[in-house]
Please model this.
Amino acid sequence: LDGSKESKNEVSVTVSGRICLPWNSFQYRNHSFSNCYHNYCRNPDKRIQPWCIVKRRNRYVWEYCDITDREIKPKSSCGERHLNRITKIIGGSRSMVESQPWIAAIFKGDGFICGGTLIAPCWVLTAAHCFPGGKKTQIKRYSVFLGKNAINETDSIKEQQFNVSKLVVHEGFDYTTENFNNDIALLKIVDSNGQCAVKTNSVRTACIPPFQQMLPTGFYCEIAGYGRHQKGGFEYSRYLKQAQVRLVSQNDCQNKYYSKDEVNKNMLCAAGRDWEEDACQGDSGGPLVCEVNNTMFLFGIISWGKECSKKFNPGVYTKVTNYNNWISMHTGLPKYTVGSRYPQKE
Model:
């Protein structure tokens, strides 16, 4: 347990906040650690990160540990992109996917339904309301495309296609009301060969910011999607579009533009400078990313709004930094990322 350089840490807390048990206090899969008296997180069987045993409901179970980037060094950075072009979602021109390489296009059968964001090679973060069936959703009917410039065109060089092997919808999301609290879901993706995403100029991950990280009011961020040009529009835009929006203060969002019953602490608001740029139907689940120190962080998930690009009605987004623990618990990833691991492309 103490033989590798990777194991030299003194962390003893899991991603759920539980304290690790001493290694010599249990037997795990017929392995005894009787000579190991500490309770530090270790990785004896080479998993994606160190783990330990905890007691949950009178059972011994393993959990990944709360290891920060100081203990786990990434092989490749997230939040990087090859291009940097700003165009509009509402009324704008098309954008190259290299400027938003983390965007995912989610399909049900042959029909596009929502956007998403690649946060790790095997995981896409999106909106819960994209899956009205909740736990009863038939995930075999869904597929995810990365590196896609247009939803009605195929580029075999840029694109990567995946099946959905697991869907995790936030247990606090209520499908029976129009309340969009906890509008967040995770998709685990895998291709026909059992592989996850491969890093290219058109496919990269966005970073997850630290827990409850805040950016100042008026800070410029970006949204992207394949959604409709206007609410009630018959066709999706087909081509990827992106726009620049500014963060709206929580006070203004809850009291000036909406009410506290509509917008709560798990949401944030953003709007274009002249109320001309906004997300629309079909953009749901897509990214609101903000650049910090030349790195793109996922601060919001496109969730809802009143009409599209309507004056004094900013777009409303799921506040990602309220869900670090939830994301980590279900994926085994660190609570926030400064990098991601990719397989090497052959």
